[in-house]
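Subject: Sanity check before I submit

Could someone independently write out the structure tokens for this chain? I want to compare against mine line by line before I put it in a report. The sequence has 327 residues.
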Amino acid sequence: MTSRTRKFINRMRAGEDLGLDRSAGKGRQRTINADGSYNMERKTGKLLGSFNPYHWVITTSWSHYWLVVFGFYGVMNVLFATAYYFVGIDQLNGMQGNDAFTQWLYCFFFSAQSFTTVGYGGIHPVGEFANFLATLEAFIGLMTFALATGTLYGRFSKPVSRIKYSKNVLIAPYKDGTAMQFMIANELDTTLMDMEARVNISWMDTDEKGNPFRNYLQVNLQVDKAIMFPTSWVLNHPIDEESLLYGKTFEELKAMDVEVFSLIKGFDDVFSQTIYSRHSFMVDQFVWGAKFKPPFALNAEGKMVMDLTKVGEYYEVPMPQMVSLGE
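---
Independent answer below. Compare away.
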């Protein structure tokens, strides 16, 4: 371990740890996916692993949520309709249809009315088995809609962060040297304030015995807090002599298996709660000699227009001759 590496470790905040592994396995994938989820597989020794139905329903996408809700509703009605049909259509007063499919179809309609407790009265049970099925279905329907209402409220009441990150990390000219930069913006039409940013770099290192391990360093930012966040924010890490990136080429950073972690925290006035967003960048996403284009501009009336489709767009610029940063 070099003296510079020791200096990096000493500059880390006391008691702060990313909670990530320090193993040195080859072929390691990125730690955090682009959507902010951790890129890992959990093994618990249980049949369903760490799967929790309520957590899944609250956190899954809207398309998956509605697919489950409508799928469960349809499957339950199909099962009960089939049960009514085999119990006997003579136990359902008001049944219509002369062929088997039409009779089953009306059993399905009756099941939907019982499941939702609508009960139009066109068809009603008259036998013991049919009444028992209708009673059971009404109970299941009430409990199901109570759960669906609760999960739907949980999804709407859960604080949501939609921080958009630039696709690339830029190594850009900054003052008399260079800086590592990436851009973020708020995708939602909400007011975020008291924003805080922490950026860490992970790389492969060796200990005093030459054993490889993964090291972490929280880097210094030019600005790590923003009072208001209406447009975009470029997180800027000056690459000075104390920076891990100082004088490094792309090939060197790739050999070090560098990964950049970002944790963004802010207050959302819609939910009146603190929201968090995490992201990571791999070394292949680094671009040398570029600067970000502002994603906002004034329109003809002089009003500020924020274009989220332009977040992360950049243009090439010459790099300072005093620092060799590779291609």
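---
OP: Matches mine. For the report I'm noting this point. The radius of gyration is 29 Å.
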